[in-house]
Amino acid sequence: MGTQFLKGRFTNRILLVVMLLLILLCHTVCKMHSINCSIHDDPLPIPHEFYQPGDIVIGEIVSQVFYLYNILSFMEQPTQIMIDEPIYYTARMTYKATLSLLSTEHRFVPNFKCDKQNNLIALIGGCISEISANMAIVSATHKTPQLTYGSFLPLKGVKKLFPFLYQMVPNEAHQHTGIVRLLQHFGWTWVGLWAVDDDKGDRFLQTMVPMLSQNGICYAYIVRIPKWNYVDEMIDFALQHLGTYEMVFEENPTVFFIYGEPPCFQVLRMLLLVAPILGFPPLGKVWIVTSHWDFASLSIQKNWEIQTFHGSISLTVHSNQPLGFQRFIQMLSPFWAKGDGFIQEFWKQVFNCLFKMSDDSDEGNENETCTGKEKLESLPGILFEMDMIGHSYNVYNAVYALAHALEAIYKSNSKYRGLEERGKLTFPNVQSWQVHHFLRRIIFNNSAGDKVCFDENGELVTGFDVTNWVMFPNGSVVRVKMGKLDPQAPPGKELTIHDDQIVWHPSFNQVLPLSMCNDNCYPGYSRKKKEGEKFCCYDCAPCPEGMISGQKDMDACIKCPEDQHPNKGQTKCIVKVLSFLSYKEDLGIILAILTIAFSLITALVLGIFMKHKETPIVKANNRNLTYILLISLLLCFLSSLLFIGKPGNVICLLRQTVFAFIFSVALSSILAKTITVVMAFMATKPGSKMRKWIGKRLTNSTILSCSFLQVAICTLWLSTSPPFPDKDMHSAKAEIILECNEGSATMFYCVLGYMGFLALISFIMAFLARKLPDSFNEAKFITFSMLVFCSVWLTFVPTYLSTKGKYMVAVEVFSILSSSSGLLCCIFSPKCYVIILRPELNNKEQLIRKIK
């Protein structure tokens, strides 16, 4: 138990002295645990107390005295064990110390007011949650404000049960969020959880496990660290949990997340000390600890290996370095205050010396005598740190908060003004509940420049420092603040980390450690759940065709937009290229050249026939029909150009309809030629009435009627469901096919079917008339040309249906060119041969002779 006073005027000097005294108690006692204690059956006596009287008293209880028990057994004599390092915190000790503060000076008379009753206005403590909770039960009954500076209390119902409780630490929920953000920052998804085996550990796991899962993080295992209540349990734990150590070593998490308080650290150190002796290799892991944790060692442990924790990361309550603190530590002496046994006990332990005339100085003791000139800065950091740490900083703020509350009481009540005794102000009859009224509204900046205030739950509004622990072989410890956690920041931006300041365990060779159940699934693959395993353990499956994964560890591959397609590795989407039969590509150029070439040939043939229009061979084959046929063939060739180039609204309307109409005219001309041959032969018979049908009337009516019917079909097509430009996104993997949608496939095949019908009729009639004695075997040439025409278009239909995109268009262009050139070649090449190369055969006598 430690107590301190505030007396007299509120000067900076008095406040500084009071503040430093209380910080010293916490800094040297709570952290160092360095008092010699024996095992007692009755733990009620208080080994040390420090008291100075005053008008107003602030009490502090530090977590210094621990007691260790054996399991009670009536089968043997109780063990008589003397131990230098206390282990177990007892509730009985805490209640006794708290009631002593509320009792008469140097007497234990709780719940009574006596002459020398302590005017206790507030309590500060304790270092761990169990001590804080035990204190709060008593302080709440007496309506005394309590400022707890160490571990967190359970959140549920705290404010209702302990309305006078103030926590100099932030809400624990902020710490949970910070740990999750820390794991996400480094990409650690596979961790080992260590938690103290008590109610606090249960609550931690119930909160943290779902939170980890919701953020894509799994735990490999959960290890419960027991609280040491008995000596026998300590030995049993070291033996029973060697299996745990083996599991921890064999499992692959690189990161351990530990939730516990300082006693748990001693348990863990015992396990790590025993395990290598039994052949287990040292652990090279990343230890992530909460702010409850403390890496301080007992003095008996100062030579124990601490390198296992090198590179550990912890969230520590934000601290700063007040002005003058370093100087105060350097001036510290074990003889600084009479009646203070705390400092002397600490001094004996860490410097391994004895004070003259002390009770524990025996003859033959080889320990040196403590001179008081020993240097604290010479101690290893694991035993004593020269900087103000989080717990000490919390005490510092707690004292200042109480001082400001007292100042507010003084300023708010005029009756205190003028009450001066020898130039000093007094506070008669200030009650603890009055301090509570002002304390909860306190807002100020301390001498280190940090703002101090409480929220509506009585919790200090502050954040956490992200600390990297650097452990040196000589026992020195350096805390490196490598980031911060600001609970008031926007969601997702609470954590700030400076990666370049981090020092990792030597086993990682300063490379960022990885902690995953298995290797990442790289882009192009997605995660596939393993049956019976946690969701962080998975196989990697390649993305299906048409899908990608652009990041590591994607749960599912995603489909590219319609206008994009996956690259070769299926890691990203690439914009599809527009595809159509273009004049800029080889296929389009070849077809255009063929079109122009055949058009020129047709025009040349037309010119030859027009030049020799008076010759018998031109006259004998119905000159007008020949001109119509040649012009229609010329236009058929030219219509192929409508199929080359980017489809547009006008182009799509004209493509099939223009081609169908022109080709129908050509086929109608051929049909008229065939009918003319048949009718001419029938008209030569004596008494035939067919003479009157021979002539222009027959040919004109045949061409007009056959062409009109095709025009009617095309008109119906355009009026009901006309062709239109369209984009085919799916037929080609890497292309967007620009095409003319036929609108109505039925009408399209009706047009083709009608042309096929004309070709078939022409073929049948020409075939039947192939042996008739016409001029220059006209019927035979038509028969062969129709055979070529029908062969081309019968082949066209299945080929057209089996191709896509620009190749479908190329098939149709090729069919147009092939069928048109077949007609041109089969019908007109023999005539051109006679006209140009055998002009002697182009005479009337030859014509008559052939007919006969």
What does this structure look like?
This protein is of the alpha/beta class and 852 residues long. It contains 22 helices and 28 strands. The protein has four domains: 302 residues, Response regulator (Rossmann fold); 193 residues, Response regulator (Rossmann fold, 3-Layer(aba) Sandwich), CATH 3.40.50.2300; 51 residues, no CATH class; 266 residues, Rhodopsin 7-helix transmembrane proteins (Rhopdopsin 7-helix transmembrane proteins, Up-down Bundle), CATH 1.20.1070.10. It is rod-shaped, with a radius of gyration of 52 Å. The strands form nine sheets. Strands 7-6-8-9-10-17-18-19 form an eight-stranded mixed beta sheet, with helices on both faces. A five-stranded mixed beta sheet has the order 1-2-3-4-5, with helices on both faces. Strand 24 and strand 25 form a beta hairpin. The N terminus is likely disordered.
Q: What key attributes describe this structure?
A:
five-stranded mixed beta sheet; eight-stranded mixed beta sheet; rod-shaped; Rossmann fold; alpha/beta; 852 residues
Low-confidence stretches: 1-46, 81-87, 418-423
Distance between the termini: 145 Å
CATH hierarchy, class of the largest domain:
Alpha Beta
The H-level CATH homologous superfamily of the largest domain, spelled out, is Response regulator
Using the CA coordinates, give the radius of gyration: 52 Å
Question: Tell me about the biggest sheet?
Answer: 8 strands, mixed
Continuous helix count? 22
Shape: rod-shaped
The number of domains is 4
Overall pLDDT, averaged? 78
CATH architecture of the largest domain: 3-Layer(aba) Sandwich
The secondary structure category is alpha/beta
- Can you tell me the CATH topology of the largest domain? Rossmann fold
The total count of strands amounts to 28
Range of helix content = 40-55%
**Strand percentage:** 5-15%
Strand order of the largest sheet: 7-6-8-9-10-17-18-19
